[in-house]
């Protein structure tokens, strides 16, 4: 049986004459927390959008939850959650109304949806924030609400594109505790982040630069291999080496 949640082989995306993703190959095992790192514009969001069935690749192969990213996009969408970098909630609706709306989009039955919202509200400790208009919430709470929306249909694989951008350290730590609980319950997490301390929470990471993967592995093993003391230093070393080629 194939235990890979994500398999990509030479995935490539051209926008006109610009190659945003350049022959990326990766495997992410079921249940793992995989960190997808890279500087701004490296091609991370473009890769995630191809994996989520939102953008057609130019070439290469890919399977998500066992389904082909060209042919089976609808099947993939039912099995994954996607928390995008952009705030995806309706600002004038309350948190509860937003969750109700997204649950309806997933065609969840009202009784099931009500139960699921109550469950997520407790798990993610949304408390009274769920009753407030989403637009009025502090960033950290908005992000938690967006996470709840992406989890409504119990996805097997969750893609998180910079889920903690602009959030304070305490909130980030609590957000990661929630992610750990999700991973413990068997959800595969594919996370982009700019925060190197968060990268250390991942079982494996990859570093992307100008559309290519320049390193992949367990964070501690990568540090030993490249003789670096911190992921920050490793990141800078690898990017600088590439710039000098
Ligand atoms: P960030 O951390 O800033 O979100 P990223 O690694 O997610 O960066 P992408 O958003 O994937 O990077 O963008 C990769 C490159 O592709 C960038 O140079 C971006 O300007 C370009 N790009 C992305 N989408 C398009 C598009 N629809 N048309 C043309 N160029 C695009």
Strand-pairing-aware structural class: alpha/beta
Overall geometry comes to: globular
Largest sheet: 6 strands, mixed
| Total strand segments | 10
Q: Which band does the percent of strand residues land in?
A: 25-35%
Describe this structure in words.
This protein is of the alpha/beta class. It has one domain (4-244): Rossmann fold, CATH 3.40.50. It has helices spanning 44-51, 73-79, 95-105, 110-123, 139-151, 169-184, 196-199, 219-225, 231-244, and strands at residues 4-15, 18-29, 33-38, 59-64, 67-68, 80-83, 157-161, 188-192, 204-209, 212-217. A six-stranded mixed β-sheet has the order 6-7-8-3-9-10, sandwiched between helices. The chain has a four-stranded antiparallel β-sheet with strand order 2-1-4-5, with helices on one face. The longest helix has 16 residues, at 169-184. Bound molecules: adenosine-5'-triphosphate. The site of adenosine-5'-triphosphate (ATP) has 12 residues, from strand 2 and helix 1. Adenosine-5'-triphosphate is lined by residues 15, 18, 20, 38, 40-46, 85.
In short:
This protein is an alpha/beta fold and 245 residues long. The protein has helices spanning 44-51, 73-79, 95-105, 110-123, 139-151, 169-184, 196-199, 219-225, 231-244, and strands at residues 4-15, 18-29, 33-38, 59-64, 67-68, 80-83, 157-161, 188-192, 204-209, 212-217.
List keywords for this structure.
single chain; alpha/beta; Rossmann fold; 6-stranded mixed sheet; 9 helices; 38% helix; globular; binds adenosine-5'-triphosphate
